[in-house]
UniProtKB/TrEMBL annotation:
It holds the Pfam family HTH_18. Keywords: DNA-binding, Transcription, Transcription regulation. This is Helix-turn-helix transcriptional regulator. It comes from the Bacteria. Residues 140-240 form the HTH araC/xylS-type domain. InterPro entries: AraC_XylS_family_regulators, Homeodomain-like_sf, HTH_AraC, HTH_AraC-typ_CS. The keyword Acetylation does not apply. The keyword Ligase does not apply.
Length: 264
């Protein structure tokens, strides 16, 4: 069982319960986000993803994760986000000790809130507890330029248009994207476009029509990008998912798969 709760201004807290077949590899589509994950009592970091990952479930109990909204990983984790792009590493190897301790405390506390929401205390709204705790340990403040970059990328604006809108040179935008998002603006556009295509295909839109509506040059272009970012073909995705909302779950982290360039 999987459930999640949004933490406004930060990201999404999620909890994945151990299930039958645990340990089997799971394909996790790229979502452009980074996660800190408490799995089997170990804290790990899944870096910003621009290509599909291969993950596994927890062996002992539930897995709890915090998925940062795209653009917040660098500041939240106090590092250059590009250092962790498309990778899964132990938190001890990636984060400063204090950041690691704060993150683990937060996940344990918020994980309890999500478990409570499952019915241990009927009538308790976990969002109340989550709001009270979500400001710590990650005091992010406003990063208005990241939100605008996301809006521009969702509209399909070019890097030149985005840089002009934000008041940066293209080189300045690239540097800031790598630091905060972990990848370049072009990679963000590609991930978001594939996400839009997933939504259309999941709603029953034909592959060719989905390619046209999301700005791919043709069906073959969609198929190539879909395989690289989502980890399957559009046809297989449709067969498995039509009528169901496309999952955004990074589940339990993963191992980077394939050797495609990040597009940064």
């Amino acid at each position: 069982m999987y459930r999640e709760v949004e933490l406004p201004g930060l990201g999404v807290l999620w909890r994945s319960e151990r299930s039958v077949g645990v340990g089997a590899p799971t394909v996790i589509p790229a979502d452009g986000s980074a996660d800190i994950i408490l799995r089997d009592d170990e804290l790990v970091v899944a870096g910003p993803s621009t290509r599909w990952l291969l993950g596994r479930g927890s062996i002992h109990g539930a897995t709890i994760g915090l998925r940062f909204a795209p653009g917040l990983a660098g500041r939240a984790l106090e590092l250059d986000a590009s250092e962790l792009r498309d990778s899964l590493v132990p938190a001890a190897d990636a984060l400063a000790p204090e950041v690691r301790r704060r993150g683990e405390r937060l996940l344990r506390a918020l994980g309890d809130s999500v478990r409570t929401a499952a019915g241990e205390r009927p009538g308790t709204d976990p969002r109340i507890a989550l709001r009270a705790r979500s400001a710590q340990p990650f005091e992010l403040g406003a990063l208005d330029w990241t939100a605008e970059a996301l809006r521009m990328a969702r509209r399909g604006a070019t890097v030149t248009e985005a840089a002009a809108r934000l008041g940066y040179s293209e080189r300045q935008l690239q540097r800031r994207m790598l630091l905060h998002f972990g990848y370049g603006y072009t990679a963000l556009r590609r991930v978001l476009r594939a996400e839009r295509a997933r939504g259309l295909l999941g709603a029953g839109i034909a592959v060719e029509a989905a390619a046209t509506r999301t700005g791919y040059s043709d069906q073959a272009h969609l198929t190539r990008e879909f395989g690289r970012i989502v980890g399957t073909t559009p046809a297989r995705f449709v067969a498995a998912n039509v009528g169901a909302a496309p999952s955004r779950n990074r589940t339990d982290g993963g191992q980077a798969a394939g050797s495609a360039a990040s597009g940064a």
